[in-house]
Amino acid sequence: MTDTITVSEQAANQAGDSSVCGLKAGDRLTLEELLYGLLLESGNDAAVAIAEHISGSMQNFAVLMNEEAAALGATHSHFTNPHGLHDEEHYTTVYDLYLLLQAAMRYEPFETIAHTAKHTASYRNASGETITQEWETTDKFLTGEVSVPDGVTVLGGKTGTTNAAGYCLALYGKNAAQKLRISIVMKADTSESLYTLMTELIKQ
Predict the structure, then answer these.
(1) In what order do the strands lie in the sheet with 4-6?
(2) In what order do the strands lie in the sheet with 166-174?
């Protein structure tokens, strides 16, 4: 988590309409800071920077993703990139997402970051100047934009949206009986319907 990573041109140069956390080539951040940018802001730039640091390239990192998914029993998934942008060979299922989120939430750093509503990032740019950014989660339950049903506790999770996948959310929390639950909605047609459907799920 304390590894310092230099953002590459490829990582910084993401499509203008994709979700990023505002990184520039030459920025130097810890892996922990990049994970905040990835999990809160859905930063595709952070995803690529992490993948390149771990494996040298997005392609090599996808190999590790597929190996880990298979080890967890997520056998109906195949990944080609670290950020989830559309690719015909990049896919998963509701059950596989359940397995992946269940495994991820066992790691305390992931759980902590996934439960964070806002984070002040601090790092240095290519010139050595200190940069600060305010990153906010895309999970509207954690921001308070959508009310959590009475008795329900949201512990973390991850949103994801593409034209092909629609609006998606995998959520980890406790129901009113304080039992741990993973709830997943995929292919909602709007953000509003995503949270309406998820609210109905987590009230159960």
Answers:
(1) 4-6, 28-30, 118-124, 130-136
(2) 153-162, 166-174, 180-188
Q: Which three-class secondary structure state does DSSP give residue 92?
A: coil
Q: Quickly count: other Cβ atoms within 10 Å of residue 29's Cβ.
A: 25
Cα–Cα distance measured from residue 113 to residue 148, given in angstroms and rounded to the nearest whole number: 19
In the numeric block, which tokens belong to residue 91?
């896919």
Specify the DSSP class assigned to residue 105: T
pLDDT per residue as tens digits for the range 136-160: 999 999 999 999 999 999 999 999 9
Q: Please state the pTM of the whole predicted model.
A: 0.95
Closest C-alpha to 142, from 133, 132, 152: 152
The three-class DSSP label of residue 185 is strand
CA 183/CA 172 separation, integer angstroms: 7
